[in-house]
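Researcher: Next sequence.
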Amino acid sequence: MESLIALEDSLEGQTALTRGFVGRYVEMWPSRYLRLSIAFSAGQWAEATDSALSLFSSSAMVGADRLGQMSGDLVELLKQGRQEQAQDALEEVESCGNETVAELMARYVQPAS
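Model: Next structure:
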């Protein structure tokens, strides 16, 4: 969340812009994960690496540190040719992503009034 506070500060407190940015991240999670999952299922390791890298960078931008770290680890496993270990980590990435999206929705996109 610190990244989001810094982003909002850089936008001179324009909360709506920041919430919109985070909202788009939340909306894109299902398609990002689907792209990653399909690449794994098809054994398209270059596409899987690209998808994991995209998830890594977008997660970093919204301050989703745990998901970003897991995605970065996935990229490294794939780059090292350790597809079986990467496949084992994929379920954890999905779970973390779902938790991250729920937390962003609850804390930032739709804060309690």
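Model: The CA atoms of residues 4 and 62 lie 6 Å apart. Helices lie at 2-10, 15-42, 45-61, 65-79, 83-109.
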